TrEMBL record:
Keywords: DNA damage, DNA repair, Endonuclease, Hydrolase, Nuclease
Organism field: Actinomadura parmotrematis
InterPro entries named in the record: DNA_mismatch_endonuc_vsr, Restrct_endonuc-II-like
Family: Belongs to the Vsr family.
Entry's transmembrane regions: none
NCBIfam families (alphabetical): vsr
Protein name (record): Very short patch repair endonuclease
Length: 125
């Protein structure tokens, strides 16, 4: 478990690089809302856009998640808890006027960055 990074993962770094290349600037690993005890991977405070780079295993990707064969009950519950927290985070952000964008680790960084840029620019305009 120590080897699993909380930030600066390869997919997250690739996404940040692609977003930066499009000319967008952002905060890294920050709480979008101070009272919210959750951090977004990229935060565009002015546009009120929070981006989360979700790992396929940890967040239960419908395309790539494969249940663990060892200690499966524990891991199944862990993934379900993560998914519930993600839904709650999205709801809280929406209630506060934010948009939450979730990018799966398997998504190509370029198209994901374009999707993020479109939303940020529309809300900054």
């Amino acid at each position: 478990m120590k080897a699993n990074r909380g930030r600066d993962t390869k997919p997250e770094l690739a996404l940040r690089s692609a977003v930066h290349a499009l000319g967008l600037r952002y905060r890294v690993d920050q709480r979008p809302i101070p009272r919210l005890r959750r951090r977004a991977d990229l935060v565009f405070a002015t546009a009120k856009v929070a981006v989360f780079s979700d790992g396929c295993y940890w967040h239960g990707c419908p395309d790539h998640h494969r249940p663990s064969k060892k200690n499966s009950e524990f891991w199944s519950e862990k993934i379900q808890t993560n998914q519930a927290r993600d839904r709650e985070t999205n709801r809280i952000l929406i209630d506060e006027g934010w948009i939450a964008i979730r990018v799966w680790e398997h998504e190509a960084p370029g198209p994901a960055a374009e999707r993020i840029a479109k939303v940020v620019r529309a809300r900054s305009g």
